[in-house]
Give the backbone structure.
Amino acid sequence: MAVATKTTSPVQGTSSMGPCDDDCGIRDVLDRLGDKWTVLVIVELSKGVRRFRELERAVPGISQRMLTLTTKRLCRDGLVERTAHPTVPPQVDYRLTPMGRSLSASVSALADWSREHKAAIAAARRDWDAENRGAEAGP
């Protein structure tokens, strides 16, 4: 059984049990955002309504199956709305819900940060790997 460790906040007289005072849902959000495709799909949908094939083309490397699973999960979480139009063949499009749009600013900021620091992170990894070549794995 895990035991919560009480920490003191920088704000005088307050304390917390970790990143949230209670179960604020951060683990659920990180589980969703931490998968390989979710952030890319949200960033693309932040640009506007997209049909399935448009999303598939806009997210390099995603398979049809993974895009289907990702959009279903985002719909289930209330972040994306799926609309199937009664045409032959059926046309399906996706858009962010108001809650999804409120998340998209943070996700887009993360994507921008990643782009801005991509080269620096790659260089830091190369340097670390060079310094630690042959070192045993561990803390």
Q: What stands out?
A: Residues 1-16 have pLDDT under 50 and may be disordered. The first helix runs from residue 26 to 33.
